[in-house]
Amino acid sequence: MDPITHALTGALVVRAKPRWVLREDLLSPFARTVTVALAAAFPDIDYVLFWRDPYQFITHWHRGLSHSLVMVPFWSILLGIVFASASGQFAQWKAFSRWCALGLVCHIAADVVTIYGARVFAPIGDYSAALNLSFDVDPWIGLIVGIGLVGSYYYPVVARWGLMLVIAFLLTKVLIQRSALAVVEKAVQAHGVMDYKFYAIPQPISPFHWKLVVEGNDNYKIAYVDLLKSDVQDSSFWLSAYKSKHSLAWDTVSRFGETIDDRAIAKNIWNHAEFAGFRRFAKLPVVYRIDRDTDGICVWFTDLRHILPGLPPPFRYGMCGSGGQDKWQLYRIRRFTENIRQPIS
Questions:
Q1: Beta carbons within 10 angstroms of residue 292's beta carbon
Q2: What is the pLDDT of residues 24-62, one digit of tens each?
Q3: Are the CB atoms for 214 and 185 separated by under 8 Å?
Q4: Which of 95, 103, 224, 257 would bridge with 25, disulfide CB 3.0–4.6 Å?
């Protein structure tokens, strides 16, 4: 989720007055709300590390220590002391810490429902919990939370209604996800494919838009479905990529390239020791493209989870070089560009 949605969600939760954290303390309702909102936004402070090293950021740092349930006691005490000192109420640092813990848990829970997930046991484990119910940015959750928060200042009970509506929305997404999985499973069985894995990846804009992926040995079959669309409906712009479940347009994408030469060099880069971080990050890796020029060859990989129709992928990492295993350098293609390379030191 985006930081604004995280902060608003934290504020909504505290406005709903959860009984499991309510205790007698000297903090005002305003102080509690601001504390939880700021704490709920805090874990995304790891974004500052992107500017230091984008590669290490996505492969090791992002949604790690700052998003860990194991680290919640440490972060909540640290933030509690900071907020208590800043407000001139240092004696109440324990109360601030308790509300900070609530905000941190809200943030982690919200990220777990996304496709990116969160490493909830860092630093003792690298398991990334991801329920794949939401794209990394979900405008519907943000809208529900925002309306609930504004309404709660006029009618306090609206905060609880808003929180329950968010939970109901996510539970509905579970049912929608199962419907999308049923569509891809039926399509796979109709083609007689035996050895396969399949996925339904949520898309932004509509909760009924899903990317369907069938994973084979060295290729993927990809289709975009709109579970509400009938055969006669059509959409404009990039939404036209989302078809009715009765008229899916399947594309086949090779994981390592189309030709024998491309596959050989792509597999060499994929297994390169310095590319281990991206191997761990990418759940559905695929060659983005292979560039050949007078300076040598660049092999770029991306992750199918984060690709949207008609838009350049946000994560495009690879290696450039001209020869043996020890002559390759890590690079990334900068976001929102097609050809600007940035070396990874």
A1: 11
A2: 688 998 999 999 999 999 999 999 998 888 889 998 888
A3: no
A4: 95
